[in-house]
Structures are given as structure tokens and as C-alpha cells.
Write a structure and sequence with these properties.
single chain, Rossmann fold, 5 strands, about 20% strand
């Protein structure tokens, strides 16, 4: 009999991540959520950075997939706000949510700005499923 390990924060199987997908495009939200759920993850979605900050302030996530260009609050600003919340809560860097930028902008200057804001990784749109899986497992 094999023993199943569980995530200490969610109580779900360890290979199941709790993921917040942030994108202002309804079709992108639907496609990414469907893919992630089929991969066995728990997924919430919101349509802008302000909603992402609000959602994050009340729920633990292993990963946030953050679109960069959105109305209301862009992904870079939302990431800065989320990192501020983590600092206020004194969450150690090793326990912070993994934030992955999803963007059509993949110039070196853009990437540097994402990392300065506190994003951990980025994927260019359109992204490959294998790339997403690799980043989720990092």
C-alpha cells in the first residue's frame, strides 16, 4: 500500500496545487482553468489585479498565474501588493506564493521588471502545456 503525502497548508494530495489564475480574458481563464483542473489542481480565477490581491488576502495559494496587462490593476502592481501583504505577515521567502507572469511581452527589459516586482517566473503567450507543468513543479 502506498502512502499519499499531503500539502501541509491545504490538506490535499501533495501533487495538487491551489492556484489562482488572473487574466482579463474570459476565454484564457476558461482554458487555463480547464487545463489545470484536468491536471488535478484546485483553481480559482479573477479578472484583474485588484481582485487577485483581494482574493490572496483571504486565501492561501501555492501559485498565482498572473497576466501582466489588465484593466483596473495590472499584474506587476498586483504582484507588488501581494509581496507587501506577505511582508506584513512576515512570510519567509521560501514560503511565499510562486507568482508566474503570463505575458505577450517577453523583452529583456520587461522580464527584468517582472522580477523586480517580485514575480518568480514568466511564460510568453501563447505558452506550451509542458512549460506550464515545468514551472508548476519548480
Amino acid at each position: 500500500m502506498t502512502e499519499t503525502t499531503t500539502n501541509k497548508n491545504t490538506g490535499l494530495p501533495s501533487n495538487c496545487l491551489t492556484i489562482l489564475v488572473v487574466d482579463d480574458d474570459s476565454i484564457n481563464l476558461y482554458l487555463i482553468k480547464t487545463l489545470l483542473v484536468r491536471l488535478g489542481h484546485k483553481v480559482d480565477t479573477v479578472k484583474d489585479g485588484a481582485a487577485a490581491v483581494e482574493k490572496f488576502s483571504s486565501k492561501y495559494y501555492d501559485v498565482i498565474l498572473m497576466d501582466v496587462m489588465m484593466p483596473v490593476m495590472d499584474g506587476v502592481t498586483a504582484t507588488i501588493e501581494i509581496r507587501k501583504l506577505e511582508a506584513e505577515l512576515k512570510i519567509e521567502r521560501s514560503n511565499q506564493v510562486k507568482i508566474i507572469a503570463i505575458t505577450a511581452n517577453s523583452f529583456e527589459d520587461d522580464r527584468a521588471g517582472f522580477f523586480r516586482a517580485g514575480m518568480d517566473y514568466y511564460m510568453s503567450k501563447p505558452f506550451q502545456i509542458e512549460e506550464l507543468q515545468r514551472l508548476l513543479n519548480v
